[in-house]
Amino acid sequence: MEQRTLGRTGRKVSTVGLGTWQLGADWGDVDPAEATAVLEAAVESGVTFFDTADVYGDGRSEQTIGAFLRERPDLDITVATKMGRRADQVPENYTLANFRQWVDRSRRNLGTDTLDLVQLHCPPTPVYSDQEVYDALDTLVQEGAIRHYGVSVERTDEALAAIARGSTATVQIILNAFRLKPLDAVLPAAKEAGVGIIARVPLASGLLSGKYTADTRFAADDHRSYNRGGEAFDVGETFSGVDFQRGLEAVREFAGLLPEGVTTAQAAIAWIIAQDGVSTVIPGARSVEQVRGNASAADTGDLGREIDAGVRRIYDAYFRADIHPRW
Q1: Mean pLDDT of the chain
Q2: pTM above 0.85, yes or no
Q3: Mapping DSSP to helix (H, G, I), strand (E, B) and coil, where does residue 27 land?
């Protein structure tokens, strides 16, 4: 699989990584053996980048990855984690003292002395512009607790604020065929600054898998059931903020853009890979088959560029008016 430089980290990572929210919680029950099998399949498919967070299963995702890598010390995997969502979401909590506690917990979970990449996990907007926050993160780098740091954002203005800081290594942002706003300013600014772009929610919480219908039902503990109106966290994290029924209509049109033998999931990921400035895409997966299918998107050649005009047309018709102003 193609390897790209992950921004200011200088590390090479696979264009298709693995998001591991689903290995912790919020997507229904997780079987430990299946979680390990997903990680194994990812590695076998050429994936060299895992994204996790301290809040995923309250540390279970980190622990699963840590155990997996301890048994495979020869693997060269970059692990990015995130911190901050286990505390009350007020700017006052983003301090060096709290950062040390949060990082130490993640280091224990992952079984490592130094974390490859730590991202602020969608903190309150003022945090992205607070110099003391970046000074604290720089201190953690100097102390050897973390190698690099970045941010995960909900909105493009938050991304631009972080990119403007000279030491931000990466920005993680929702980017998919139903969420195009990052193409306007964030990706060009990140490329100019040498900041890596980690594209999350690439399948719009599964909508772009093409497997759902109006009759699809999700488990009660799946965020696609309990967060459709933003009851638990930003609604943009669930189906990218898109109305489920409207999304199904758009997916049908999206599928019409594709050549025979290419799945909607593969095409959706391939389209993101083709966007200038993207470092890696991090689809989640609950099964070995999903992992392999997602990774195979890297082998679709120029498909992402070939369907670009159609993606933009569908976005303009279905989503721009509601989605573009909000995030």
Answers
A1: 95
A2: yes
A3: strand
**CA–CA dist 78, 309 (Å, integer):** 33
DSSP letters spanning 248-277: HHHHHHHHTTSPTT--HHHHHHHHHHTSTT
Distances (CA, A) of 72 to 47, 114, 157: 14, 17, 40
Side-chain half-sphere CA neighbours of 151 within 13 A: 31
Would you state the pLDDT for residue 32? 85
What's the rounded mean pLDDT across residues 209-238?
93
For residue 53, what is the DSSP state? Answer: -
Q: What domains can you pick out in the chain, each with its CATH number?
A: 3-324 (3.20.20.100)
Q: Which residues of 237-269 are buried (b: 16+ CB within 10 A; e: fewer)?
A: bbbbbbebeebbebbeebeebbeeebbbbbbbb
| DSSP secondary structure letters along 169-225 | -EEEEE-BTTB-GGGTTHHHHHHHHT-EEEEE-TTTTTGGGT---TT----TTBHHH
Say how many C-beta atoms besides its own lie within 10 A of residue 274's C-beta: 19
- Alpha-carbon distance of 81 to 110, in angstroms, equals 9
Phi, psi (degrees; rounded to nearest 5) at 299: -100, 10
